[in-house]
Every structure is written in C-alpha cells, then in structure tokens.
Amino acid sequence: SYVLTQPPSVSVAPGQTARITCGGNNIGSKSVHWYQQKPGQAPVLVVYDDSDRPSGIPERFSGSNSGNTATLTISRVEAGDEADYYCQVWDSSSDWVFGGGTKLTVL
Amino acid sequence: QVQLVQSGAEVKKPGASVKVSCKASGYTFTSYGISWVRQAPGQGLEWMGWISAYNGNTNYAQKLQGRVTMTTDTSTSTAYMELRSLRSDDTAVYYCARASKGSSFLDYWGQGTLVTVSS
User: Fold this and answer.
1) Residue in B104, B109, B111 nearest the CB of A96
2) Contacting residues for B18 by C-beta, under 8 A, at least 6 apart
3) What pLDDT digit, counting tens, does each position of B12-22 carry?
C-alpha cells in the first residue's frame, strides 16, 4: 500500500513562512491535494493538483511537488492558519490515501 | 452553493449497524462521486470508500470490505453509508465528501456525523 509521511508538527511565528512536507515514493508522479482542518470542523480543500487553489483560498497558500516530496507553503502566516493539515493522493493500489497530518502552531 | 448535509449523531452497541445519510444540493448529483472518510478521536483521516452517483459503482477500502455498504438515492440526491458489526474502534466522526471529476480531490465536505460505539 502507498504511504504518505508528514511531520507531526510545524511551528512558525506570525508573518513568517510555514512549509509542510508530504513524503511518498515517487510522489512527484502523482497529483497531491492538501486539506486544512480546524478543531471541530470538517476538512477544507486548500490546494489541489499539486499547486492549484480553490476559489476563496488566499494566495498565501501554495503547493509544489517533485521527486519524493510534496510541500504546502503558507506565506505570511496568520493566527487563523493554525490547524491540522493533511496531504492526499490517489494511488492505483490504495485508492484515496491521506498523510498522517501535521499540526501547524502559530507561535 | 454546493452543500452536503449529514444525519445526526448516533450511539450504537457493539455488533450493531449504523447508516449515515448525506444529502447533496447545489449541483447535479449524478455528475459526481461521493467518498466517505472517517476520523477517530484525536486521529487522522481514513478513507472508507467511494460511490459513483451516476451508476452506483463502488470501491471500498480493503480493511472495511464485507462490513461497509455505500448506496445512493438519486431521487433525493442522498448518499448513504452503512457499517455493520460495529466495534469500539469504529467510534469516529464520519464525513461524506464530493469527489471531483477528472481528478482525485474532495472539494466539498459534509459537516460530519459522530458515531459512538459503546456497550
């Protein structure tokens, strides 16, 4: 089965840039999607197909994907960005696969 | 606007079954699939399965094969997820989500349904 690996936590000061990684075997050949989940709420799609943003998602959220690592980058981090972030891909042997999630803490 | 509205919280005993509904609005129901995702307390997201609202084709996570059934009612634009032989580790929030056309992301999510399995 296909496995996605995320760091459990990332901390960043307000106004700085947060980078959340998602590792997987040759993940660069797959489309990676990212979700934000705040406590008690449903996940929200923030980046799809590696680097596209749904309408309503700030330009501060961007994504990249190459080799064995995909990255979600949040520029000019705000307190309201504090949440859990999950990467997700579709794999022919495992179907929809989620990473374990990363808790973003804004210091 | 696209909305997915799920049924309310459930409390079940071990061995029982639960059926969660997900009513869609704001788009053509049969043009998209629905995935179900669950989240145990304090844990991450786990994909459970997918159903095509167009033709009813399903694809279930291997670990749930034999215990889960997903269906749709196109007359009411509602998707259903039934889980049988419930165990304590099935306690989770269950989400339905619309599966995009042409790609694999989940672009709209229901509000979630808490299912508690306890004797």
Assistant:
1) B104
2) B10, B12, B82, B83, B86, B115
3) 999 999 999 99
